[in-house]
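Handover notes (outgoing to incoming on-call)

Open items:
1. Di/tricarboxylate transporter: sequence verified, structure written out, both below. Nothing else pending on this one.
2. Nothing else urgent.
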Amino acid sequence: MTWEMLFTFIVVIIMMVCLIKEVARPDMIVFVALTSLFVTGILTPKEAVAGFSNEGMLTVALLFIIAGAIQKSGVVEYAITYLLGKSKSERYSLIKLLVPITGASAFLNNTPIVVTLTPIIRKWSEENNISPSKFLIPLSYASILGGILTLIGTSTNLVVHGLMIERGMEGYSLFTLAAVSLPASVLGLIYLVTFGYKLLPNYKTYGEIASKKSREYLTEMIVEENYPYLDNPLVNKTVEEAGLRGLEGVYLIAIIRNGEKIYPVKHSTKIKANDQLIFTGVLSKIAEVQDRKGLTLKTGTNNTLETLRNGNGQLVEVVISHQSSLLYKRIRDSQFRAKYDAGVVAVHRNNERIESKIGDIVLKPGDTLLLLAGPDFEERSEQSNDFYVVTPVNNHPLLNKMDRKKAWFSVLTLALMIIFVSIDLLSMFKAMTITVVVYLLFKIITADEAKRHVQFHVLLLIASAFGVGQALFKTGAAEWLADQLLLLSAPFGGIGVLVLLYLCTITLTEMITNNAGAVLMFPIAIEAANRLGEDPMAFVILITIGASASFLSPIGYQTNLVVYGPGGYKFIDYLKVGLPLSCIVMLTTVVMVNWIWM
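Di/tricarboxylate transporter structure tokens:
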């Protein structure tokens, strides 16, 4: 084993440990790994930056813009709201939801679809007295099953396609994957509406729990008008001057003055006599506030989260995304209130409320924040990829007369480009480029909106992972790993190789990310195919589907993360419902690959 191979192994192992332990954002971890391989001379400058100009990576960027344009049009919301209608039975409604979602996810990035539909499904569930936990995991899983059907169904497919082209292979056509994945998707959907449905929990959401247990979230203090012997020392002082910032364990979230609600509360907000100060946080620590001269604890308060949301504000739940700039920062340091016009009422992680001072909570992917949002929240949140809004911010104007023309124009343009790709008139990259240009020219989406929809953190991760994968090829590390894989699976023949390769891929996907998992397994799959003298396409398709078939945890795939908090799920729920589905997809994929290519 050469020093280059050994060093590459060490870098990859450290990278994976950091990704699993979430020591920083995934894109930064993989970029640092790439930098270390470049600095030590294992990768040349050309090899290190090759991923940043890779066709697959650039197509992913274009797909983000296209998905954003379709999301903006409201077509998906309109279609699903129409299809759901009134509930005849839960399972019938589930079928009406999952089939079109799977179809739509085959041609659009599935993450924005799930983000868009989560609040709609929650609202529909509430209106029909159904727990959203019966629908949200199936929503995520159906979008994943749709994503493995076509080349553009998910970014992972395009990433592997780009790697194949880079290695001089032919790459995927639009429907190459469908020959293997269509049977898996059909069987998966049947499972979700039958046995899988029985395994789904029946939970209340955080919003419902918070509304019913407001006294566990809020405490009210009154600013005394006639403080004994002296004027009240708090009156006419700003919140900061009064020492009501940085309190131990509690957080001033709102002020009620003459019936008017003021939130989020700014540092410069002045306190007046008879103000009602609403605190949240670790309410057992309210004694520190009670000791302040000029404040009196109000017992039997009528103010709840529901009453606070009336007026200009709303109670909103958001889920912190993998690419958020808020990750691994304290809420206090992120200037959350000023940035988003919203105060944090509570933070939930792993289905449990974090019982500590809100300002000191360090945010992680999947954290669900309960916000008391001001009037500017909607506009500010739309300009950010820091979190997914999973409750309706306002009633969505589904499709008004002017929007309808643009909406159908955007859908028809995309459909036309897909047809051109299907008949090999255009490459996928050219078709997506033309589609984006048409959207911009006809003002389906503005340049600023297009920029907001591009997830640069995801692109950095993909481009950096390309370089790490190249290092595995170049140093012989991939060849060595392929030899070990073949050695382990030798007693079980060709089927054993396929099963082990698939298991390694889904393990990496669940532990790190789907794109990084696919890139790391790609060189191993190619070397394993070469060793056996088999068509590399069989092995590459196997890892492509395995990298996207993430059903076992909320952290392996973005759509699973989106529904984690809104469904009130526990980690075990994904394992319980997802393990049988994962086995169905794996067995079907292995059988189809073996039948068609080997």
